[in-house]
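Q: Here's a chain of 270 amino acids. Please give me its 3D structure as tokens.
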Amino acid sequence: MTNFPIPDVDRVSAIIREVAESEILPYFRDLANAGIREKTGPADLVTLADEAGERALTPRLLDLLPGSTVVGEEAVSEDKSLLDRIHGDAPVWIIDPIDGTLNFANGRPLFAVIIALACRGETLAGWIYDPCDGRIATAVKGQGAYLNGKRVTVAPAVPLTEMTGALSTRFCAEDLGRQLDERGRSLGPRVCLSSAAQEYLRLLDGRAHFSMYHRLMPWDHAAGVLLHAEAGGYSALFDGSPYRPTVLNGGVMLTPDRASWEAMHRHLFG
């Protein structure tokens, strides 16, 4: 149990929409003014919109919950010690101002804002907002998952050969990546959108059955894993233990139910 009230879900949603409208969308498809630059390489980009969005979200979220703190992707890129806040006793807002920056920078409407609220290593609430089509997914732990205000459930379980979803091998070891790619061919169609947020939305609206990720940065997955669980899905780290936003290494796999997870794990990992 928390010793603080979870801020109103709709109020947080309104803040996210307002910031996306004022700080993010004006840069979309305006490459001359977006200030695109590399962080660690050509596939790891940041834009003025990422920075402006995080800068605007931070004080507004802090004002909603006195005593809280923030872990933002762009702030952490400048000061990695900020990640330690996730382990503390204070509630922490986890911010990804633009998940799918590569898509954003290339004018593809496959990006989203992700916000999670966590405390003592547990995700308590999550939001994913697609500024291009206006969809917003919300969840508070124990209260179900909602997409545009309507309660949602994950797609029903199907045989492995019919399961479609995202299987990311980008950050795993080369040998493991080859194994997963080879064994993944016998699954249903694989869809990689270069945005975990967009792939989580596909899980919530029933268009995908599974997602699998390596390199577990909390701004990419804390909200999505909670949303998926609140929609009735099952997820676990590759070793079978529960996902927590404090876990940064290894990988997580999400499926419709535990039986599907176990079958897919056996199929992919042997």
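Q: Can you summarize the key feature?
A: The mean pLDDT is 93.
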